[in-house]
Design goal:
Mean pLDDT: 83
Largest sheet: 5 strands, antiparallel
Distance between the termini: 29 Å
Radius of gyration: 30 Å
Strand content: 5-15%
Number of strands: 11
Oligomer: single chain
Shape: elongated
Low-confidence stretches: 343-354, 725-735
Length: 735
């Protein structure tokens, strides 16, 4: 591995014009493809294998004109104080509004509140439901504008008018904080390298990589049904790893220059050693992201694969374009220990009259090696305390009740709860498939009667059969809000009752609707978490055994990762569920943590955690392989790697934190969760717990059974093959 990458680095350095041209051409091609591709809305949301999805599919077959997955809007009216919606003037306004709403080209139906009995018992609140042919993200802007304009016209008469439902669903934006994250990364790079040129290389290559990745996603969005969130998350992860991977190679290049090697040799060795770590770190991230496909939720699978593709591009750019750009930079990139004009005149440490003071990484590692038990206990207890809120984790998917109170969707949600009860915002649709029944009408009636006898049921509408008379829908209004445990129990209660109905009438009873779909998604994600952990951690564990040629080091890495994830989940619960620091984070509405958050964090954080493990511990193993004692190898690893790992972690935190400004609650939560997880993993696990454990284990940390040592391929991440060749014949050029 090291020898191949060494040659690749030198070739890229020598043929820098060709390499740069290839990457610029790929960026241009992807950009042209994105610009010419048809616009794509949000990806279709389907959950194969769930009962709610089966019911939706059945409705498409038996009720062809129903548009079961089409957008809906509930236009909610509230009369002024002292008036009722049944007053002649208010009634005329509502009926005129209904007429205007029905004129939309994409509208399939609009209900009249007075005919549909959609007026509250006290007469103060009414609503009209608008159904569309297409989903909320596919809805034309003109249709959304017409909906809002019609509501605004009604408000002029004195009525309170708000719009709920998914018809006004908007494409998320990240805001200016994303730019701030990149700016913070730039400052950290300048401080780390002391040079604008050296600092600019990782930023430039990361932006090119993300540009290619996101443009490719945009170009394929319509064809592959990729949503807007897919490109946002690919950008988030691609930026973070792209900067970090380039940072490690540039840092190693400067270290090789400081040892007196000429620039081409230094590039080759940097790519051969640090580049090997980049390859394996990138592989762990790709495994974690692609592994999301085991959950069998198409949206999550697409997000993972798209982000994994962007990570793969970041690895390739770090291995080829960074050497090419270093060739262009020439002497403007200084050896380690020298500063450019930006931060002071060049000062070679070797010429200093007195020995150089050990850097902070060396001093910290020496302290940990002397006090490993105290540091280990402090780190584990601290992460354990941060993880305590995770015990109160409540999972769910967002609805209008989780929107900020400033939005019309949230105000419509509250008005409907006030007028018709909290369960009215999450009605359940029961689909009765009586195609195999001898008496479909009796089956429909029996189903309705059975549901009426269940707890927490407020309303059960009469069965609405299709034209063939073999399938009917029944709307059930719960007494509790959609995200409550009581409503979840009701869904399971209806499904349990369906078993008895099946035995008596041969009719299948299915429960669907957005509330049932959310419940099914949460359960599917919970069920998939353990298999996903086993698959991803297992594959990465095997990969790390190959890298470190050790059993205990990969095991320690995996356990440390679990601590990081639990602590980060605890922080997410504290902020987004409990409301701690919610104002600072821009969280306007607390509530359950999104169902996909734990499994997505497990996937992404595991990959990123292994990045720091590989980059930091490979330097320790390199020192150990070359004859140093275990404790000294830990200190040596920190002397070479602590500064750059710290910079990489700060950069990654800044990039992720930039997405906290997103208008999309899922992106905001993931940005915060990942930034927090990187902090815990880099500064507590990798910088404290890892060296403490290695110090306690000593030589046992690098133990590997002889039979396994013979079986495993030798990937030479430490560059031992390069050192041997170099010892025989190398030319040192003193800067």
């Amino acid at each position: 591995m090291a020898t191949f990458l060494y040659k690749l680095g030198r070739i890229s350095f020598r043929r820098r014009h060709l390499v740069a041209l290839i990457w610029v051409a790929l960026l241009t091609l992807a950009g042209v493809g994105a610009a010419s591709a048809p616009a794509a809305g949000n990806s279709s949301f389907s959950i194969p294998g769930t009962e709610a999805q089966k019911a939706f599919d059945l409705l498409e077959q038996r009720f062809p004109g129903m548009s079961a997955d089409g957008a809906t809007a509930r236009v909610v009216f509230k009369a002024p104080s002292g008036e009722k919606m049944t007053d002649p003037g208010n009634k005329a306004t509502v009926q005129e509004t209904v007429k205007e709403l029905a004129d939309g080209s994409e509208v399939t139906s609009v209900t009249d509140p007075y005919r549909a009995k959609a007026v509250s018992k006290d007469g103060t609140i009414a609503y009209a439901q608008v159904s569309y042919k297409v989903s909320g993200m596919e809805l034309d802007d003109a249709a959304k504008d017409a909906l809002q304009d019609t509501a605004q016209d009604a408000r002029k008469t004195g009525l309170t008018v708000e719009i709920g439902g998914d018809a006004l669903q908007a494409v998320p934006h990240t805001g200016s904080s994303e730019i701030i994250g990149i700016a913070v990364a730039a400052v950290v790079l300048v401080i780390t390298f002391g040079s604008l040129v050296a600092a600019g290389l990782p930023l430039l290559t990361a932006l090119i990589g993300v540009g290619i990745g996101v443009s490719s996603i945009t170009a394929l969005a319509s064809t592959l049904d990729l949503g807007s969130t897919t490109s946002t998350l690919a950008m988030m992860i691609g930026l973070a790893v792209g900067i970090d991977y380039a940072l490690f190679i540039v840092s190693r290049y400067r270290a090789e220059l400081a040892e007196g090697r000429d620039r081409e040799e230094a590039v080759g060795r940097a790519v051969g050693t640090a580049g090997s770590a980049v390859v394996f770190a990138g592989l762990t991230v790709v495994i974690a992201l692609v592994g999301l496909s085991v959950v069998n939720i198409p949206m999550l699978t697409k997000m993972g694969i798209a982000a994994a593709g962007t990570v793969a591009i970041a690895v390739l750019i770090a291995l080829t374009m960074i050497p090419a750009l270093l060739g262009y930079a020439g002497r403007r990139v200084k050896p380690a220990g020298e500063k450019g004009k930006l931060l002071g005149r060049a000062k070679a440490q070797a010429k200093s009259a007195k020995p150089a003071k050990p850097n902070l990484g060396t001093r910290w590692a020496s302290f940990v090696v002397r006090r490993p038990i105290a540091v280990l206990l402090l780190g584990v207890v601290g992460l354990g305390a941060a993880a305590v809120p995770a015990a109160s984790l409540e999972l769910g998917l967002p609805d209008d009740g989780s929107q900020p109170t400033s939005t019309t969707q949230r105000r419509a949600y509250d008005l409907l709860s006030e007028g018709f009860g909290p369960g009215f915002n999450g009605p359940l649709m029961v689909v009765v498939d009586a195609k195999g029944s001898d008496d479909p009408k009796a089956a429909f009636s029996a189903t309705g009667d059975e549901i009426k006898g269940l707890k927490d049921v407020v309303t059960v509408t009469p069965p609405q059969p299709n034209k063939a008379g073999d399938t009917a829908t029944i709307t059930v209004v719960p007494g509790s809000k959609p995200s409550s445990v009581t409503t979840e129990n009701l869904v399971h209660g209806i499904r349990d009752a369906g078993t008895g109905i099946k035995a008596d009438t041969d009719a299948n009873v299915l429960v669907t609707g957005s509330t049932a779909m959310n419940i099914d998604v949460s359960e599917k994600l919970n069920d998939a978490l353990v298999p996903y952990l086993v698959l991803v951690v297992g594959l990465a564990f095997l990969l790390l055994i190959v890298v470190f040629r050790s059993i205990l080091v990969p095991l320690k890495a995996a356990l440390g990762f679990l601590l990081s994830v639990l602590a980060a989940l605890g922080a997410v619960v504290a902020v987004f569920q409990w409301g701690w620091l919610s104002d600072l984070m821009g969280v306007e509405q607390t509530g359950p943590v999104m169902s996909m958050m734990p499994i997505f964090m497990v996937g992404v954080v595991f990959g990123l955690a292994m990045d720091y493990e590989v980059f930091l511990v490979t330097r320790m193993r390199e020192a150990y392989v070359h004859g140093e004692k275990p404790a000294q190898a830990v200190v040596t690893g920190f002397r070479h790697g602590a500064r750059v790992v710290t910079a990489a972690a700060v950069i990654m935190m800044a990039v992720f934190a930039g997405f906290i400004g997103s208008s999309e609650s899922m992106v905001k939560m993931i940005g915060f969760g990942l930034a927090t997880a990187v902090f815990f993993d880099a500064f507590v696990v990798r910088m404290a717990i890892v060296p403490a454990v290695l110090a306690l284990l000593g030589r046992k940390a690098w133990w590997l059974p002889r039979w396994l040592d013979r079986v495993l391929p030798n990937v030479d991440v430490e560059g031992e093959g390069l050192r041997t060749a170099d010892d025989e014949d190398r030319k040192l050029v003193h800067a």
